[in-house]
Structure formats: structure tokens, C-alpha cells
Specification:
The chain has 174 residues and is an all-alpha fold. 52% of the residues lie in helices and 2% in strands. It has 8 helices and 2 strands; from the N terminus they run H-H-H-H-H-H-H-E-H-E. Helix 2 packs antiparallel against helix 3 and helix 3 packs across helix 4. It is elongated, with a radius of gyration of 28 Å.
Length: 174
Amino acid sequence: MARPEKYQIVKHIPPEHLNEEADLFVAGEDLTVAKARTFERNLMFVRMRYRGFAVAEASAASGMTEPTAYEVQRRWNESGFAGLVPDYTGGPKARLTDEQKEEVRSALELQPMDTRSVRLLIKQKYGVDYTEKQVHIILKKLGLHHAKPYPRDYRRPEDAEARFKKTSAMLWMV
């Protein structure tokens, strides 16, 4: 004797109209390719649940884990088609604003520094403690590069010999 299902799927619309309604919904939405793909996968799961498949079977056939399938079913029961569209938030908020990053860039235009010094500057001025690797990534995204100036480099400062002795560190420059 089979156990009854604990979580039933709500049939917002008749099964024969499911595909047409889904097409109308997608036509009214501005979905990215990734969101459209996920929507189709979630819709496939709902179709299978409408046909009477268990959550485990429908989730395996549509390529998602069971916990994800239960979440998709909960969102379908609450919101219908809108619940099948993934809600990507874009990740965590940056700890430095764009204005603060530009201030760091301006400071480097005035005085070239090595990565460690830039890291300390950010920590003292903004209270944000990045690793040296992350500081490197941020400075690269700002379009900066680090190098010792060569004799024929157009970016070579006037006081290159004094500023960059053989024992000096690699400094970030604009």
C-alpha cells in the first residue's frame, strides 16, 4: 500500500491548458536565456506532477534535486507561473562603492603604491579588510597595471631611477 503524498500540487489551471498558458506567460515576460531555461525545467516538473508523478520521480526526470523540487512546487502552489521564474539576486553587495574605488584610483595616480600599501589604505580609509589577492583583482578591474618602468616605456615617470631602484617592489600605476 502506497503512502499518500504529503505535499499536493495545486492545479491552478486545467492540465490541457497548461502549455498554452505557459506560452502566454513567457511572451509577456522579459526573460534572459538562463532564466528561460530554468523556467522550462521547472515547468517540465510541474507538468509531470500534474500527470501524477511523485516528487522524486518528477525531480529526477527534470534534472533537479528533491529539495529544489519541493521548493519549486511550493512556489508554484503560491504564485503559479510567476513562481517558476528564478529570482537571481546577483550575489552579495560590493563592500566598496564605485566612488570609493575611484578614490583609490585617484590616490594611485598621485602616488604609486604596491598591493600591500593599497590594501592598508583601503582598510584605514574605508574600514574594509580585503586580501591582497582581492585588492589585485579590484585594481585590475579599474584598469591599472603593475610594473617597473622600462627605459622606453611611455608611462615611465620622470624620476624613475630614484623611485624604482632594483630592490623596490612592483607598484600599481595608472
